[in-house]
Amino acid sequence: MDRPPAVRGALRKLRAPRRPRLWFEVLLIAVSYAVYSAVRNAVPEQRAAALRNADWVWRTEHSLNIAVEHTVNRAVDSVTWLIVGMNYYYATLHFVLTVAVLVWLYRWHSGRYAAARLALFATTAVALIGYYLYPLAPPRLMDGTGFIDTVVKHHTWGSMASGNLADMSNQYAAMPSMHIGWSAWCGITVAMLVRRRWLKVLAVLYPVATLVVIVSTANHFWLDAVGGMLCLAFGFGCSAAWYGGLPSRLSRHVAVGGAQAHP
What we know:
Layout lengths: L4 H11 L6 H21 L4 H17 L5 H9 L2 H29 L1 H24 L16 H5 L23 H16 L3 H20 L5 H22 L20
Helix pairs in contact: 2-6, 5-6, 5-8, 5-9, 6-8, 6-10, 8-9, 8-10
């Protein structure tokens, strides 16, 4: 159905990348993260269902011959300095680097910022649906499997769902893994936009390292990572549909008047 010219013009105006405003972006990110945390933690903690789902995931991984989380968890835990470092990595880096990439986009890729931000926000929004529909216990909370809760064992600050902080967070929101969703968003976004090969390699290695960390600390199954990647695909799909292409296909800068500058 052909839209009236006024409607088409309004849509083009809405979809056109604009120069981001710092105060608005800081407020938007802060409010969005607060809402995400509140909604994620407000999802009912269905312990019985979460443990049943975890048992199903674990059995499924065994049938696929990819159930190596237990081996990885115990092997890495035997190296104290490594697992302690991973605990702090798990607690901080996914948030710190995600914000850092947003700042980098805002400063040096203003024409691509809005599209990349939409991909991130859509990824996170669909993940909240997953938390509600599919409560899942992390491996460290499963009974009789021998997984080690590395935060509890080594007395580190590494997870809002361990130790004294457990009552402040939904412990059964493991599927999908937003550690993977956010780190892969960072890695893909940076790899698509930088020119130096070593930076591209580091960008790709970041989500790979995050995958090793979430498994080593027994906070996620491999399949949680798959869920995170599916959410990310949805996020990039939403962004591409709205802006007419992935962030890397858009012009780097936005002109002062609001129109896109040439790449």
